[in-house]
Amino acid sequence: MKNKLTLLGSLFLMSMSLQAQTDDGIIRLSEFAYPVKRQNLNIPDVNGFKVLKCDFHMHTVFTDGHVWPNVRVQEAWREGLDAISYTEHMEYNPHSADVKVDHNRSHDLAVELAKENNIVLVKGTEVTRQTPPGHFNALFIQDANVLVADNNSNLDQEAIDKAYAQKAFIFWNHPGWKATAIPGSYEWIDFVEKMYQEKKLHGIEVVNGLGFHKKALDWALDRNLTIIGNTDIHNLIAHDYNIEAPGVHRTMTLVMAKDRSASGIREALEAGRTVAWSSNYLFGKEENVRNLVNASISVSPSYHEKTNSKTKVSTKYYEITNNSDLYFELEIKEGKGTKRIVLYPESTQILTAEAGQSKLSYEIVSTYIRSDKHLLFDINLK
Amino acid sequence: MKNKLTLLGSLFLMSMSLQAQTDDGIIRLSEFAYPVKRQNLNIPDVNGFKVLKCDFHMHTVFTDGHVWPNVRVQEAWREGLDAISYTEHMEYNPHSADVKVDHNRSHDLAVELAKENNIVLVKGTEVTRQTPPGHFNALFIQDANVLVADNNSNLDQEAIDKAYAQKAFIFWNHPGWKATAIPGSYEWIDFVEKMYQEKKLHGIEVVNGLGFHKKALDWALDRNLTIIGNTDIHNLIAHDYNIEAPGVHRTMTLVMAKDRSASGIREALEAGRTVAWSSNYLFGKEENVRNLVNASISVSPSYHEKTNSKTKVSTKYYEITNNSDLYFELEIKEGKGTKRIVLYPESTQILTAEAGQSKLSYEIVSTYIRSDKHLLFDINLK
Amino acid sequence: MKNKLTLLGSLFLMSMSLQAQTDDGIIRLSEFAYPVKRQNLNIPDVNGFKVLKCDFHMHTVFTDGHVWPNVRVQEAWREGLDAISYTEHMEYNPHSADVKVDHNRSHDLAVELAKENNIVLVKGTEVTRQTPPGHFNALFIQDANVLVADNNSNLDQEAIDKAYAQKAFIFWNHPGWKATAIPGSYEWIDFVEKMYQEKKLHGIEVVNGLGFHKKALDWALDRNLTIIGNTDIHNLIAHDYNIEAPGVHRTMTLVMAKDRSASGIREALEAGRTVAWSSNYLFGKEENVRNLVNASISVSPSYHEKTNSKTKVSTKYYEITNNSDLYFELEIKEGKGTKRIVLYPESTQILTAEAGQSKLSYEIVSTYIRSDKHLLFDINLK
Amino acid sequence: MKNKLTLLGSLFLMSMSLQAQTDDGIIRLSEFAYPVKRQNLNIPDVNGFKVLKCDFHMHTVFTDGHVWPNVRVQEAWREGLDAISYTEHMEYNPHSADVKVDHNRSHDLAVELAKENNIVLVKGTEVTRQTPPGHFNALFIQDANVLVADNNSNLDQEAIDKAYAQKAFIFWNHPGWKATAIPGSYEWIDFVEKMYQEKKLHGIEVVNGLGFHKKALDWALDRNLTIIGNTDIHNLIAHDYNIEAPGVHRTMTLVMAKDRSASGIREALEAGRTVAWSSNYLFGKEENVRNLVNASISVSPSYHEKTNSKTKVSTKYYEITNNSDLYFELEIKEGKGTKRIVLYPESTQILTAEAGQSKLSYEIVSTYIRSDKHLLFDINLK
């Protein structure tokens, strides 16, 4: 332990030299400053598509959020997001005594900053009337202000129709939001069915914040609607997510797009090439989740073999690597091999398998391809 | 390494069970949520005074800040602060196209939330005219709106006088702010001297954010003005400070007060019982810094002695403990003992001293009791 | 976001100045060094007793551990422990081809280092024969080597008797260790009953590493045996515990002792004044757990009251503070107040209660005062 | 702040459900366990070569280290290393009273574990006689025991010759080790010159632990010797490096090899394709450092342009991305653009440049291609 008494260096210990002396009589005490950077969120391309990290649901002081619009760009830039959308409430403006109501304003105020930070800004709004039917987000609109419905008897329908007239991509937000407060609200009601029939409903927000709406996933799968995950953030991301902890990220939609642009995102949304990512879980159509998994996980050829001297059973060793910042948990279903594998972001585990097998079959229990179904993942052993 | 392959438990690994299943068809994926708590910031009482953690300089969307007023209470609560003050600019309102100008509004909007969170709210404002003379904060005012000066030739003086008429505690903000941009601005100018002579200047903000204004410290010491440290935060604390890292805190004024109340704070400010704390450094009058150090650091009696078989020199062992969340760095000046000691928050180091001495003298290089002077700290050896 | 482009300071950014230039042609690149310190583990005194943090079960290369004895002192010092005990296996020496077998050696090699670091070293050993009866630790012995039993038919009994003859404090380790592998091994067998009757069994290791042995807790409670929790560490603490994460600590026994000494520890062990602490949980006799909780948690008088304008119900606000580095989770049992409270180390939560009540009753679900019973905790409202 | 009172989820808060209940009467309290994983250390291939992370200098209990050999494989696996070498001292065996002296033993004990963990084990030893000449590591040897020199008058030469006879790759360790204690020891002495002339010296350890030996770098560059960086670890990596902090890694040699094998490493070492990496710094031949930088840093085409309305100056925006886990600091030398850029691991910064330029020239001040020279790095603007 001699080192203990003599070791000089440490972050704190060297702090005197951290003062950036300048010639203006001010000393910058800089070591406490946040390391300002855009953290790459690594996910390999999927079959030639870029995997864009998108959050299509958020609020600012212009409705009931707690931040000025610029903060949302800062957060997106720092956290490695590619695209965001301001979706202020159309009909709920609790700050109106202080803040002038203008449904386009948060987007407009952020346009230049988003450009400087290379963040794709998708113009959007949230149509929020009674629940049911609840709330809908309309993306790729031109003007949010004209969407406000007249005060007549058919508010919801009118707002949806106006958004549709603007060629919006429309999805249903957090379908189970008031599931317990308003019995019957978490149902596939006529209003929604009509939208769906008229091609005015294009996706469902299956994950809102940290809430996974199970029935909503199945509705989306059964009707081939696009699966969406968003934060619906009102507060700071840093106050709602433990964002500095390793592996922690906000809820988002992974969009597999031809290019990193608003039009690329729109094409992918319409084609349904999305996976929602929240906490350690992925939610999506089987094909999309499978493609994402295949792009992220690799298994090495066997690099070692060992025979148990008593049982004469031979065990082969493999490396299974997560090449992405995603997270995977696997549980074996068939074959004799490692029973449970946890693949942290950008990490590797050792996989062992009894020699003589050509395949192991796992369930990736950190994925949902239906509310009660995980992705099956076969590993071919070499 | 057998353990590696068999060990089951880990934060991530158990995450499936982290899902809080509920009966409403929504699964809460909770492990990514921020641990919402008020983190105690431990500093022992100093000679019977409570050490209150205060930030008297901050902004919201009501002037040029990026957050709604409630966020400042959230931040203060989480970070263990006792008191804050909204100090919106009187004359600078870049959001006025969107946000109605009302200089009392951010304070008023936060009053109830502050009460619920037991945060002391000190009503304040920032008088911001030309530089020089620069900016001044006025605390304990009644009405910020009436402070706005008429558009005449003596703007600064009028605003200061109106604040003084409201019995404000007034301090000069970041005196070196435009030191390089406006030559001569970082001087003790006539305007300030007049305020001082008329007892209208009560303190100086020696540390603003992570900038330590060296000359300002000496001005305060020479004139017995109260030493203040503030964030002057416009953005999120979490975006400007690496707040989740161990030992990191925002800049603040430590106020040694008779009780935890607005009046207790005022009495202490007027009596000058403050120390500014920024990064790893403490700035203040020698007496205040010394009292704070004495309350925070303790040295044990010797618990071990060892004699070098060759040199016959005996070494005694002591524990030196930092009982606070502050940080101290000591360098020896006199005596034969450990040359350099770093006392991280709530931690202990071993101190060794040649036997036969009654005292070691250290300089605490992480303190400033003048722009060029650290506190001397004697350790009596037992 | 202007700040992003201009902000200079950050830990990494300043790193050039972190180089401690010296005159010997070697530059120390110090910022990556570990902050070497003893982290205080704060637990307030309990009814005048000091709460000592002790780990009475660990191994080194002298049996089947992976470290030289000095590492165990380093770990204890860094982690804020007060006392440790080397408890090498008497009969299991897998390194004997390389390391000379001497059951006292790891202790002896650490004695001087422990003194320098002010760590109390309790001389111990682990008697490890067949399971059942399993393993027993003997503390406060004089000579481990003489405890090795002759190769006769009554190995276990002889070793226990020899330890008893040395006036050892003896406890049963991890009683459920081979619960599934050897049916019947996790039972209160005759061998143990005989020890107990003859006063040769004084405690039970209720928690071993991260395994809580439920039946063992009840056995200890029913027979008034001392409750022990240990790591039984073989590997590095840093490889088995996520020791750098906030709030993480190794498993240990909290010993409420008259003073910080071997004799103080012995007296407390014999008096049964212990609580085992592992993960977020406390395990112990109700009285001990209650005293520890009372010393750690404080509730403020009400500081705010608010009346709901619709329901006319008044709510009072209180602060509930955890003044220790322990962790508590409370669930309400009686009264109208906050249903669930999580008290992280050194933190505070807001507690609300309907006005007009004098008391709220909580269950502290992070404590076990029996395998199926948590501590009840009443809060008197002021 | 409503969320604060109602938000349920958090790592700690959900901890009750973290208990993995089993049917054997033992509850596993698993959330404190270390997330056991191999952390990928991402560095893109360099001109078709794999960048292997190697540490060729370390000790165990078999000489003066503090750990059993298996711990070094654990550490290497967890930290993403590809190859290690046990280099026990030939002539310094302070544990010999307890541990049988065998210079091959630590390597041999680790062979099977290294195979299972896919860690390349390079057989080595450290020839440690007087200083000067100091210490030398010999890699790729067959038998360390036969290297021990007879007790004659020419110890150093004999040991070196024997290692050379085993076709070892030999490098000089920490040349400035006793620079101040033994004046003249940090010189290019005759003994070393003779080794060099006889082709018995192949590399120099320019960085040892966190010490950068400036003169040694220049010696290696001037004589085309291979540049090496190692930990020379005796204690735990986790006690000497703040290994859990983001961006922290042990000191190592980056070997650009044709394949991940002992022979691949040897070929690269002989060809001099190495860069030493310690703290935030890279040390190596200009060509090697340049290739590594080019593989790691990418600059996007301009994605935005903005014209200052007053000055009419146009500014173009670019993204500069660090695609590796390395760290880079750039300072501008020529051109009008961002003056200082810090590229944290796997992160991106915005680079701005005045329009109309084709190039910016930076110095990468976190690299050393000579003791007084950083790499120059040109950015071609598109």
TrEMBL record, chains A, B, C, D:
This is Sb-PDE family phosphodiesterase. Keywords: Signal. Residues 1-20 form the signal peptide. Coiled coil: none annotated. Residues 313-376 form the Ig-like domain. Gene3D superfamilies: Metal-dependent hydrolases (3.20.20.140). The keyword Endoplasmic reticulum does not apply.
